[in-house]
Amino acid sequence: MNRTLTALLAGALLAGAAFAQEATIRKNLLERLPQIGKIDEVTKGPAAGLYEVRVGSDIFYTDAEGNYLIEGQVLDLRTRRNLTEERQNKLLAIDFDSLPLKDAFTVVRGDGRRRMAVFQDPNCGYCKKFERDLQKVDNVTIHMFLYPILGNDSVVKSRNIWCAKDKARSWQDWMVRDVAAPAAPTPGCDTTALDRNREFGRKHQITGTPTLLFADGRRVPGALGAPEVEKLLSGAK
Fold first, then answer.
1. Which residues pair with residue 145 across a beta bridge?
2. What is the largest CA-CA distance in the chain?
3. 116 has which bridge partners?
4. Rounded to whole angstroms, what are the CA distances from 6 to 16, 88, 101, 168?
5. Crossing angle (nearest 10°) for helices 167-177 and 125-134
6. Angle, CA 214 vertex, CA 209 and CA 215 arms, to 5°
7. H or E, element range at 84
8. Rounded to two decimals, what is the model's pTM?
9. By the 8 A CB rule, do 50 and 91 touch?
10. Number of neighbours of residue 140 by Cβ within 10 angstroms
């Protein structure tokens, strides 16, 4: 038997074993914990003996027989990496070129060579903190998506900002200087972009603000400081 055929047979045996293992885990977990819902994927986990079970964007871990279920994070103590967080970030990554930029307004600072997008609610205190610290970041193009998810007043403020003659200036006035946009929107102003932003957010599980997206697909929730933003922008080629 030649080496090529031997390798093919070995590969087929390994694939068959992996399929059988996955089937066992799926069967046992669903029988023992039906409320887990639809299991989207079962793969080898980040450590020996662990299997990753993906339900939507939620990550769980189990053993080879599906006897135990672990809900938590796996940390690599040697490299000080959060392996579960890294995996979830990959699952939640958004192709930057797929962003509906027509539903955002743009702020350009300096040469604008670096790019990022942010989903923010005008009534989000963390967003205000983030926006004020973001003033220290230069040479960047920021695509700002109004994402009113904190109640009706957020919708009203977002409409007023979206309908202002200078959206970016109106946004900065409110978030940085506490100067509200005029209450009366521009006559005939189309605010359906706000609805589309909320729909986009639901589709991609954007559940909090601010949520930052970088050109390399990385997605980071929370109000980062300027140094952290600079570091992420530098890595997003």
1. 119
2. 81
3. 142, 214
4. 15, 37, 52, 64
5. 110
6. 150
7. helix 83-92
8. 0.74
9. no
10. 19
Q: What is the mean pLDDT of residues 107-115?
A: 95
Helix (H, G, I), strand (E, B), or coil: what is residue 182? coil
- At 141-157, the pLDDT tens digits run 999 999 999 999 999 99
Distances (CA, A) of 137 to 104, 108, 170, 182, 234: 19, 11, 19, 28, 12
Amino acid at 87: R
Please, what is the average pLDDT of the chain?
A: 89
- Kindly report the number of other CB atoms within 10 A of residue 111's CB atom: 10
- 96 token code pair: 């930057």
The two tokens of residue 144 are 């700002």
Helix/strand/coil for 69: strand
What are 177's two structure tokens? 């200087």
Q: How far is CA 40 from the centre of its chain?
A: 19
Q: What is the pLDDT of residue 185?
A: 62
Task: Please choose, from the candidates 84, 82, 162, the residue with its C-alpha nearest in 3D space to the C-alpha of residue 121.
Answer: 162
Domains of the chain (ranges; CATH) run 3-92 (3.10.450.70), 96-235 (3.40.30.10)
Helices 152-162 & 167-177, crossing angle to 10 degrees?
A: 130
Residues ≥6 apart with Cβ < 8 Å to 154: 121, 122, 123, 148
SS3 assignment, position 168: helix
Separation between Cα atoms, residue 85 and residue 213, nearest integer Å: 16
